[in-house]
Write a structure and sequence with these properties.
The structure holds two protein chains of two kinds.
Chain A (H helix, E strand, L loop, with lengths): L25 E6 L6 H11 L5 H6 L1 E2 L2 E2 L9 H6 L6 E6 L4 E6 L7 H8 L4 E7 L4 E2 L5 E2 L2 H12 L4 E7 L8 H19 L5 E4 L23 H7 L12 E3 L2 E4 L11 E6 L4 E2 L4 E5 L4 E9 L7 E2 L3 E6 L10 E4 L3 H7 L14 E10 L5 E2 L3 E6 L2 E15 L4 E3 L3 E2 L4 E12 L12 E5 L6 E7 L1
Parallel strand pairs in A: 1-5, 1-6, 6-9, 9-10
Antiparallel strand pairs in A: 2-3, 4-5, 7-8, 11-19, 12-13, 13-18, 14-17, 15-16, 15-19, 16-18, 20-26, 20-28, 21-25, 22-23, 22-27, 23-24, 23-26, 27-28
Chain B lengths: L10 H25 L3 E4 L4 H14 L8 E5 L5 H14 L3 E5 H7 L15 H12 L3 E3 L8 H4 L4 E4 L27 E4 L7 H11 L10 E8 L2 E4 L13 E6 L12 E2 L5 H10 L4 H5 L9 H7 L4
Parallel strand pairs in B: 1-2, 1-4, 2-3, 4-6
Antiparallel strand pairs in B: 5-6, 7-8, 7-9, 9-10
Helix pairs in contact in B: 1-2, 2-7, 7-8
The chains are: A alpha+beta, B alpha/beta.
EC number (chain B): 2.7.7.4
Keywords (chain B): ATP-binding, Nucleotide-binding, Nucleotidyltransferase, Transferase
GO molecular function, one term (chain B): sulfate adenylyltransferase (ATP) activity
Chain lengths: 457, 310
């Protein structure tokens, strides 16, 4: 019997986008240095949860022993070099949940691919290789730079569930229990310093299978759930419903054959970035500043009803207004509604602040050419393309130590803080408040490469 | 354990999971409609492209799919599939463009090493010719990341250079849902809206949405020979070799493509619900069970993708 045979109904289902939603597929990434055992861990998850089929197993087996790492390194350039170049996506299911793994590369030069994988992840498993750590005379351990780097990156991108998987403890024999305690201590101290909320720290042997799919009670003094059992209970990213309604218009559908123009003849399609939309809500249209009332809301598959953050919606307005792809529909609180709110139990969310042409952001730089002040890039915010000029490089961040350094450029794969001037104003919300409103990409005007990821401050 | 009682156990979970997959697919289909000038949807009449078409119907409304359907015909397709393709296109009121490898052979742009060679690999030439002819800037395909390793690495919006080539080391980072769809003249995108679906998801969705498929996908009697662990259909193009025994078996196809390299599997599954159960219990992958051409080399798909294959 395969593990997927008995998929049971989840214990509770509170609807997509809810903070307790464990019935949706969980997207998680694995990160860590080269040779920390990421590919082996994924191979172990796939094999032990019976997600690997016989022909795939045969392809990676030598003299009967499967090389677990070979499941994920699929490109010939990767097999030649024995490293992972790009994110590989893997799929498996247990009786209670489906999973999508983003296997992110460990090499520093492929940080862009790690950021790619992290931007859509609900959880991150940061592998720590117990055999590689240096022990100080005072009995403390120094974490590897890549452990700090990857943890900081996934935290910066607001991946909500961060799990430290301390791997290869089987190689330490009798010292494993003491080593795990010390490594846990070092990880906790680092997480506290960096402001990272850690979901769990698990001792593990991906090679032997300890605490990956099956729990190994008492091993290394750990009594908690296996990695997989933990992943089964993690919520997907909480929908940003407590922020006012914001909706980037992706596509405008025209009704050529409709004679009734009173409610407009167009449906505005897109995915709700924040908040909720329902019939009767007043919205303002950015950048034109016009206002209108929502006349109809349908979900992604054209079924009427209210739609919350993270989900697709089609919206029609009560009057004919100029709206095109790239515009935003934003919550607009009318003065009357405002005064009602003082007496309401749950006050209505307030409208957004003024749009701005000056933004400050953390940038993860991905181009092979460094970022230099003065250059103009194309920026994408929601579905809207605008030109963005780098006004100033505030500093670059040493993501191993979190120290800020004066800089005149941001090197490939580095992180920094910059100020930009935009050709047109945007409704800028810090990334900490909204992943959609608070994120942009920068695209090189000449090469059209995706050069940088911006997280608004 | 009685397998036939299983489906009720995963209804609730799978439906929510399917809703999320459908929503993502529709989002991508709309993004292509909005971001490109001349997109086309690759449509073979196979199960994956029929799932995409169902999502397109939901995205745009019945009869309103805003791009033409494009089929690259090797001339070696099962007639059940091409008939079904024509029927669905007509039913949807969609424009169907068919370009054939045989025309490329007549032009001399495709040369076979020997007459019996599989034409599957040569589809990329005809596809690139069609892209040139219609100046398509985005081609939507039904490939899934669970199909094979090279595919597992590809972005949803996959940039192709002016030779139609995929550059695995120079893929554009794909952050959040901010898709960089910028192109230089002559370049195009391959877009994969069902990247995150698995074979099981596809069958569960076909079952849930009652999507009609070509009859080949369900059990039928067929003359086959056993060759290297595969069941090879006996056809004019793939006759039995000397010493092989022709048997009539109950089979179905897990994937349909070029006759010369697609094999059925033994099965009595007559409905999508039966196939969901079979897929749950399968111990060989879709490609491992059915494709002769991918077995030749671990890297064959990667090489073909680099050459402009879908």
């Amino acid at each position: 019997m395969t593990a997927t045979n008995t998929i049971a109904a989840p214990a509770h289902s509170t609807g997509a986008g809810s903070t307790n939603d464990t019935s949706s597929a969980l997207r998680f990434i694995t990160c860590g240095s080269v040779d920390d055992g990421k590919s082996t861990l994924i191979g172990r998850l796939l094999v032990d949860s019976k997600a690997v089929l016989q022909d795939q197993l045969a392809n990676v087996s030598k003299s009967g022993e499967a090389d677990l790492a070979l499941f994920t390194d699929g490109l010939s350039a990767e097999r030649e070099q024995g490293i992972t170049i790009d994110v590989a996506y893997r799929y498996f299911a247990t009786p209670t949940r489906k999973f999508i793994i983003g296997d992110a590369p460990g090499h520093e030069q492929y940080t862009r691919n790690m950021v790619t994988a992290a931007s859509s992840a609900h959880a991150a498993v940061v592998l720590v290789d117990a055999t590689k750590l240096k022990w100080n005379v005072d009995g403390l351990v120094d974490l590897l730079p890549q452990t700090r780097r990857h943890s900081l990156l996934v935290n910066l991108l607001r991946v909500p569930g961060i799990i430290f998987a301390v791997n290869k403890l089987d190689a330490l024999g009798d010292d494993a229990t003491a080593a795990f305690a010390k490594i846990s201590e070092a990880l906790q101290a680092f997480a506290k310093q960096a402001g990272i909320a850690v979901t769990a720290t698990i001792p593990m042997s991906a090679l032997k299978g300890h605490n990956v799919v099956e729990a190994t009670p008492g091993w290394c003094g750990y009594q908690g759930p296996s990695l997989l059992a933990l992943l089964e209970t993690l919520p997907v990213t909480a929908a940003e419903t407590d922020v006012p309604f914001a909706f980037p218009v992706q596509w405008v559908e025209k009704f050529h054959n409709s004679a009734d123009t009173s409610q407009g003849r167009r449906v505005f399609w897109g995915r709700v970035a924040t908040g909720t939309v329902q019939v009767g809500d007043t919205v303002s249209i950015h950048p034109s500043g016009q206002t209108a009332v929502v006349a109809q809301v349908v979900n992604h598959a054209r079924v009427p009803g209210s739609v919350t953050a993270g989900h697709g919606a089609g919206i029609t307005l009560d009057r004919e207004v100029d709206v095109s792809r790239g515009d935003w529909l934003l919550a607009q609180v009318t003065p009357a509604a405002d005064s009602d709110d003082e007496f309401a139990d749950t006050p209505k969310p307030r409208a957004f602040a003024e749009a701005t042409r000056e933004i400050k952001a953390t940038v993860a730089w991905m181009d092979d050419e460094p970022l230099v002040a003065g250059r103009v890039y194309l920026a994408l915010h929601g579905h809207r393309w605008i030109k963005a000029k780098v006004k100033r490089i505030v500093h670059s961040l040493d993501i191993n130590t979190l120290q800020e350094h004066d800089a005149t450029e941001i090197a490939p794969n580095a992180i920094g803080h910059i100020e930009l001037a935009l050709q047109e104003a945007i409704t800028a919300v810090p990334y900490a408040q909204s992943r959609v409103l608070g994120s942009l990409i920068l695209v090189d005007t000449a090469s059209h490469k995706t050069s940088g990821a911006l997280l608004l401050s | 354990m009685n397998a036939m009682t299983e489906p009720t156990h995963f209804d609730r979970l799978s439906n929510q999971h399917l809703d999320a997959l459908e929503e993502e697919t529709i989002f991508i289909l709309r993004e292509v409609a909005a971001a490109f000038e001349r997109p086309a949807l690759l449509f073979s009449g196979g199960k994956d492209s029929l799932v995409m078409l169902k999502c397109a119907e939901k995205a745009f409304g019945v009869g309103r799919i805003p791009y033409p359907l494009l089929m690259i015909d090797t001339g070696h397709n099962f007639h059940e599939v091409t008939d079904f393709r024509d029927f669905r296109a007509k039913e949807l009121g969609a424009e169907l463009i068919v370009r054939s490898v045989e025309d490329s052979m007549a032009r001399g742009t495709v040369r076979l090493a020997h007459p019996g060679e599989s034409r599957n690999v040569h589809q990329s030439v005809t596809l690139l010719e069609a892209i040139d002819e219609f100046r398509f800037d985005a081609l939507i395909g039904g490939a899934r990341r669970d199909e094979e390793k090279a595919r597992a690495k590809e972005r949803i919006f996959s940039h192709r250079d002016s030779f139609g080539q995929w550059q695995p080391k120079a893929q554009r980072p794909e952050l959040w849902t901010l898709f960089n769809t910028r192109l230089q003249p002559g370049e195009h995108f391959r877009v994969f809206p069902i990247s995150n679906w698995t074979e099981l998801d596809v069958w569960q969705y076909i079952e849930r949405e009652k999507i009609a498929l070509p009859s080949l996908y369900y059990t039928h009697k067929r003359d086959v020979v056993e060759r290297k662990g595969l069941l090879v259909p006996v056809t004019d193009l793939t006759p039995a070799k000397e010493g092989e025994t022709i048997e009539s078996r109950d089979v179905r196809f897990r994937t349909v493509g070029d006759i010369t390299c697609t094999c059925p599997v033994e099965s009595l599954a007559a409905t999508a619900a039966d196939i969901v159960i079979e897929t749950l219990q399968a111990d060989v992958s879709e490609r491992g069970a059915t494709r002769m051409d991918d077995k030749t080399s671990e890297a064959s798909m990667e090489k073909r993708k680099k050459d402009g294959y879908f």
